[in-house]
Amino acid sequence: MAREKESYRDNLARLDTAFPDKEILKFPEVVTFLGLDRRIVEKRFGSRFQKIGRNVRIICKTDLAREMCK
Fold first, then answer.
1. How do strand 50-51 and strand 24-26 relate by DSSP bridges?
2. Distant-in-sequence, close-in-space partners of 5: CB < 8 Å, separation ≥ 6
3. What separation in angstroms does the CA of 59 have from each of 1, 56, 63?
4. pLDDT of residue 3
5. pTM of the full predicted structure?
6. In terms of Cα–Cα distance, which of 36, 35, 41 is closest to 64?
7. What is the rounded distance in angstroms from the CA atom of residue 12 to the CA atom of residue 67?
8. Are strands 24-26 and 57-60 parallel, antiparallel or unpaired?
9. Are residues 29 and 20 in contact, defined by beta-carbon separation less than 8 angstroms?
């Protein structure tokens, strides 16, 4: 069984604090939360986002917390 990364729970707690009523985050919310340029977020996390509309991409908080550990 795979072990979770050390900072996974810390990252998830930070996301829960910033977005207490959401489980799914949109791309612009992630960009704002991370404080990075959208191109950097696209390059680093882009493959983890799911496209649900013409211009809407989403990611689950747990997936983002996991990716932030890498």
1. unpaired
2. 66, 69, 70
3. 24, 10, 7
4. 85
5. 0.90
6. 41
7. 11
8. antiparallel
9. no
